[in-house]
Amino acid sequence: MKSTTSGSFLPLLLLSSSLSLFRPTAPCYTYKDQADSTHATHQEPDPCLNVQCPPGAKCVPKVSSGSLFPGSGPRAECRCPTRCPSYGDDAGSRPVCGSDGRDYTNLCQLRRAACHLKTDIRIKYRGTCDPCAMQPCMEGGVCQLDTRRQAVCRCSTICNLEFKPVCASDGRTYANQCIMEVEGCKAKKTLRIIYKGECSS
């Protein structure tokens, strides 16, 4: 009787070979071999795959003597940003407030500081830490932040009731200096004390 054992294994062998093509592989780092005049492309496992860099640092493959990964030793290293590119009017170019309470020109500068100080500095706010610091208000006005953390000058609503009359530059008498300044703020004009006491008629 003729044996069919070898024939039955052939489909299984082909199936096994085809399945091996779909096995997941580790991420690869593609680079050109500078020593090869044909510029053949080689693939190596990404050296930064399992590297944990400190805050603000970035993992980069090490290149030495014109070739990638020469000899033994670490194949990647963590580097701090040496300079911050200009993003124009992009969101990355706008100031940010760090979790350390300091203002940074942009996100790159924050990461650069975190890397050099070896401290985890995160974004606390988009924009400056104290927007009111750059928003002067007229006398009687108070700087407050709106729901978007935008600095807005509003007229104060708190004044004591102490009667210390002053004669203002608009020729009117006010109960005290605070009330004079608030009224000037509401009218959007600056009032000055001409003299203390009621204005003469």
TrEMBL record:
Annotated ranges, domain Kazal-like: 72-131, 154-201
GO CC term, one of those recorded: extracellular space
Name the record gives this protein: Kazal-like domain-containing protein
Cleaved signal peptide residues: 1-20
SUPFAM superfamilies in UniProt: Kazal-type serine protease inhibitors
Any one Gene Ontology molecular-function term assigned to this protein's record: calcium ion binding
Statement: the UniProt record of this protein carries the keyword Ion transport: no
Disulfide bond in keyword set: yes
Keyword terms of this UniProt record: Disulfide bond, Glycoprotein, Signal
Species, as recorded: Notodromas monacha
Domain of life: Eukaryota
